[in-house]
Design the sequence.
């Protein structure tokens, strides 16, 4: 199993290109099932998660062709014919987003059997909202032996769906099915994450009729068929936020390019209050911090978009470990998303977790140690901590990191970090 070794202390100076968003790419890939025409996705991140889903799509009959020209990564998805509507446990359990093939399969073929995604370390993460939405759209659903079997022999039909609370995955899943349902679907209390807007715009480019994009009410007029499209995946705001925190933590000046500053306003606001300079540019942001000046403690509460992203909570907590004063960090989206706190504690951070809230008291410095990544975003927070910890930090289980960060070591090394990957038993 690969590990990452970091020698802390180097300032970060330079430029980092931001990749396409994992959370958008995965749903755009699922959209390829809806049409027998090719869907060409550019700005495609090459990640373990996109590879997993690519494999599942291939098992369903979708041709997947990766290419690169002029430094631009693209993948062509062509679901000429769906040869299987069965998504087995082995291909779904590795990644929850694979479950989102259910709706498009139903819309395209009228039936599907997809494994339940199973548990996840950051909380229970059920799919009840997804299933409710699909049955409101006319699917007959049965759960048996860990699988969802769904049929809609006469096709899906539009419905009024009000989600009981905001869910990113359920909003996207309902949209992926409703675009080809008969009649009108209204999704209320829809999630408004930018990746949902990206999916809605791509579907529109494919011929779908969606109103209310980027709002919490989506009105979808079903169409009988969709076309292919060429679509560029939106920049990854979580990757951008993670590097912004890394730059703030290490000190120095880093320019994040191929990004969109307005997608991380909630984080920027908190960083500025903590004493970091964040300057939006035409294609991203410049993050600057004078390492001689201590950071200030700031409280944070995770919320649905446009609030502070739960996917940036671990990184921000890491930043607060060195801030002057006490910072309270509340997690409201997932019930068990503080597993990085004890790992940060191994590096000398002072963090107490109680009832969905972490209290972080800033310390003078962190000291390198072996730590273990527990989930995707927690793993990057440990790398960020390693950038400033004295001596060497070794992050184990970096396969979590590889799920969602493209060429992380390379991007940080280019800015002066002392970080390398230890292969296997090295
Ligand atoms: C997506 C993102 C993830 C991010 C999260 C919240 C992807 C691939 N993942 O995850 O990175 O952290 O949004 O911004 O895009 N819930 C239910 N029943 C359901 C669905 C969700 O109870 O049917 C609960 C979840 O357990 C969680 C909350 O709702 O507590 C929010 O989850 P949701 O917004 O659905 O997150 P995901 O789509 O799984």
Sequence:
């Amino acid at each position: 199993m690969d590990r990452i070794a970091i020698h802390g202390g180097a300032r970060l100076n330079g430029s980092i290109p931001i990749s396409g968003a994992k959370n958008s790419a995965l749903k755009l890939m699922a959209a390829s099932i809806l049409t027998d025409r090719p869907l060409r996705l550019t700005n495609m991140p090459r990640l373990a998660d996109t590879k997993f889903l690519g494999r599942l799509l291939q098992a369903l009959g979708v041709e997947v062709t990766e290419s690169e020209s002029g430094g631009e990564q693209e993948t062509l998805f062509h679901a000429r014919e769906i040869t299987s509507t069965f998504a087995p446990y082995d291909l779904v359990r590795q990644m929850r987003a694979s479950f989102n093939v259910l709706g498009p399969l139903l819309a395209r073929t009228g039936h599907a059997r997809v494994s339940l995604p199973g548990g996840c370390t950051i909380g229970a993460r059920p799919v009840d909202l997804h299933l409710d939405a699909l049955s409101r759209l006319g699917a007959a659903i049965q759960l048996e032996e860990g699988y969802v079997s769904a049929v809609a022999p006469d096709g899906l039909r539009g419905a009024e769906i009000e989600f009981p609370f905001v869910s990113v995955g359920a909003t996207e899943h309902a949209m992926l099915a409703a675009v080809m349902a008969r009649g009108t679907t209204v999704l209320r209390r829809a999630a408004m994450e930018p990746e949902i807007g990206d999916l809605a715009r791509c579907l529109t480019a494919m011929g779908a009729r969606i109103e209310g994009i980027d709002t919490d009410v989506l009105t979808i007029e079903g169409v009988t068929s969709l076309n292919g499209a060429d679509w560029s995946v939106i920049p990854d705001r979580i990757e951008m936020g993670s590097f912004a925190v890394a730059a703030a933590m290490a000190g120095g000046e880093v320019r994040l390019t191929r990004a969109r500053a307005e997608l991380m306003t909630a984080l920027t606001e908190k960083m500025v209050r903590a004493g970091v300079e964040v300057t939006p540019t035409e294609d991203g942001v410049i993050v600057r911090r004078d390492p001689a000046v201590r950071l200030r403690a700031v409280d944070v509460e995770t919320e649905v978009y446009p609030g502070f992203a739960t996917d940036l909570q671990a990184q921000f907590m890491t930043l607060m470990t060195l801030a002057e004063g006490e910072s309270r960090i509340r997690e409201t989206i997932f019930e068990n998303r503080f597993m990085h706190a004890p790992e940060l504690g191994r590096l000398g951070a002072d963090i107490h977790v109680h009832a969905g809230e972490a209290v972080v008291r800033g310390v003078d410095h962190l000291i390198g140690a072996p730590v273990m990544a527990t989930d995707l975003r927690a793993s990057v927070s440990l790398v960020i901590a390693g950038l400033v910890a004295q001596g060497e930090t070794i992050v184990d289980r970096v396969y979590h990191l590889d799920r969602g960060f493209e060429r992380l070591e390379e991007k940080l090394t280019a800015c002066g970090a002392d970080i390398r990957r230890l292969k296997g038993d090295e």
Remarks:
- The mean pLDDT is 95.
- The pocket of uridine-diphosphate-N-acetylglucosamine is lined by residues 23, 26, 96-97, 123-130, 167-170, 310-311, 333-334 (CB under 6 Å).
